[in-house]
Amino acid sequence: MISIIRRYEKITPLLDDRKKILGIENEPSTNTGNGKETAEFLRELNHPRVKAIWDPANNLFSEVPEDPFPDGYSQIKRYLVHVHIKDARRTVEEGPSCVPIGHGQVDWKAQIRQLKVDGYAGFLSLETHWRPTPLSEPVLRQPGGNRFSEEGEGASRICLENLALLTRDL
Residue 119: is it exposed, middle or buried by C-beta count within 10 angstroms (0-12/13-18/19+)? Predict the structure, then answer.
């Protein structure tokens, strides 16, 4: 991680000059696969303009799975700048997979309630990787094009409706 930190230290002056924020997502295909790893990276880099993009479902895809809420969230909440909304389930037999919001292991109701308690004022962006007809791993990992987009609108509508139901009392 030290070599990655050094590379980021070279570009952080650009953030200061332009008064921009750089978001680092907990993304399993990188060195920041879960909340703990993302927090460690941000703590080591220690730059006020480098923040966390929190994707709770990604914690379930990490090589080192971590309970998204409250465990992963408690690690990165002090760095939070943006939140991705999707859901996933991880089983021993099948590993991780995307599912409709509210059907996975992310406790979205508790997560959003805690975001409100913590005074989070940023955006939530829907990241619909789930499809009624499952996507192959290569298509999921390299989104874009017609195959990735098939059934995307319908899946997004279902996920937004589920999210609205989960959060209507908050």
Answer: exposed
If phi > 0 it is left, if psi is from -120 to 50 it is alpha, else beta; for residue 132 that is alpha
Q: Where are the beta strands (DSSP E) in the chain?
A: 22-25, 50-54, 80-85, 87-91, 95-99, 124-126
Taking the chain (170 residues) in runs of 10, the rounded mean pLDDT of each run is 91 92 96 96 97 98 94 98 97 94 97 97 94 85 80 96 94
C-alpha distance from residue 32 to each of 22, 61, 65, 166 (Å): 14, 12, 12, 28
Say which residues have a Cβ less than 8 Å from residue 35's Cβ, sequence separation at least 6: 26, 54, 59, 66, 68, 71, 72, 73, 74, 75, 76
Rounded Cα gap, residues 110 and 166, in angstroms: 10
Find all residues with CB under 8 Å of 141, minimum gap 6, and list them. Answer: 29
CA 164 – CA 162 distance, rounded (Å): 5
Delimit the domains of the chain by residue range: 2-167
Residue 110 identity (one-letter amino acid): A
2-167 maps to CATH 3.30.1130.10: no
**Is the pTM for the entire model greater than 0.90?**
yes
23 contacts: CB under 8 Å, gap ≥ 6 = 51, 52, 53, 81, 82
